[in-house]
Specification:
The protein is mainly α and about 130 residues long. It has five helices and four strands; from the N terminus they run αβββαααβα. A hairpin with a 2-residue loop joins β2 and β3.
Length: about 130
């Protein structure tokens, strides 16, 4: 459960940082923004929804994609994982009209920021969690 929460928090934080620092990456609130009949009225709700979606994709779909692409992972020495991460962000971009990360450079930098956020959060929270055990 901790890993799922880390993944959601890092995806949300990474998306926030990407919209602040990368030109072309944007999250907008529309008057018709909603999720399964629930109206989304604040920008933080969109960030949270996108973070939850991307975090769950990273936690549950990414391992399956990595298993399927294992030969490519071996040949590229693990760099194909970056392509998988970018593909998952692209899927979120296509599913939610509120999120925009145009192809190549903005998507590349967004992927890198989310990966760094996940690394920092897992290292810091992982160490904090192990001190209390």
């Amino acid at each position: 459960m901790k890993k799922v929460l880390y993944s959601i928090v890092s995806a949300t934080l990474g998306l926030c940082l990407a919209t602040l620092f990368i030109p072309g990456v944007a999250i907008q609130l529309y008057s018709t923004s909603g999720f399964f009949g629930f109206h989304l009225a604040a920008l933080w709700e969109i960030y949270l929804l996108l973070g939850i979606t991307l975090g769950l994709l990273n936690r549950f779909v990414k391992p399956v994609l990595k298993l399927i692409s294992l030969p490519l992972e071996i040949v590229t020495l693990g760099l194909f994982t970056f392509i998988i991460n970018a593909g998952l962000i692209w899927v979120v971009d296509k599913v939610f009209k509120e999120f925009s990360a145009p192809l190549f450079w903005p998507l590349f930098w967004t992927t890198l920021i989310i990966w760094l956020a996940q690394l920092v959060i897992s290292l810091t929270l992982g160490k904090l969690g192990s001190q209390h055990d």
